[in-house]
Amino acid sequence: MSSRRDRPETVAEWLLWAQDRLEALDNPILESRALMGALLGSPNAPWTRGPEILSPEMEETFRTWVGRRRHREPFHFIVGEVPFFGRSFRVGPGVLVPRPETEHLVACALDHMTDRRGEAPVRILDLGAGSGAIILTLLLEVSDAFGVAVEREPAALRFLLENRRRFGLEERLSVIRGSWGEMLGERPFFDLILSNPPYIPTGLLPTLEPEVRDHEPAAALDGGPDGLACYRKILSFAPALLKEEGLLAFEIGADQAHAFRDGGRAMGGSGTGLTGSPAVMRDVSGQDRVIIWKKL
Ligand code: GLN
Known about the structure:
- By secondary structure, this protein is of the alpha/beta class.
- It has twelve helices and nine strands.
């Protein structure tokens, strides 16, 4: 190992230094480049600015970031941002990082909303909104829609409020600090209710990657013994809040769609006010990922 690799100065040398420290990860080269790209503000910078000498402040930040990544902290927590549906959202410890699969929930909701445009402004409710990626994206895509976001966890709420401010949506998104149906009343008010609730069965949490298991909030992942506890809870109150023809959309785990057939009867969900089985939509990897119900 060259001494420059131990006493790095340039971008290229710092990349080698980082690779040594991240060698236990699956892809130390990509990991190092991603962190350096975020530090320098451009994904190409690790290639184009190799000979540049890092400032002492940048060195310090890079050392800290590499140390955190070495401890398997999620990349997006470290850099503080995550891309979602073409925009960047603030995230960090205490909030679930929005996943690419969840863009699918947004896309499905948008598809189903197109035929409503031109009518009265759409009202959307997001239960367990986390960083706000879902509801804020919908409000940005549907410019006359109004939203309500419910979130219980204080750390997640901070990111939700920060992202709401970032996109200037204070006027169109109300935020309620509470759990699930609290403070929402019982009248049909919403055109669309969606949620990406925790849906991982408790017993499987220890099998998740260290980034998720050790760093992301269990409150956003743990769906109870069978992973379905939050859906049961939501189905107990949400249909009453939907207007006629309103839509209820969930992100679900890959093997959970069967539980929602027949009005969610497998979950004790008969009489939910939603008729029949929901449409099940697959994600890009072919897994069942989104279900959408219509209230008739
Ligand atoms: N898709 C997430 C994961 O794989 C789980 C999200 C959730 O439980 N809503 O970690």
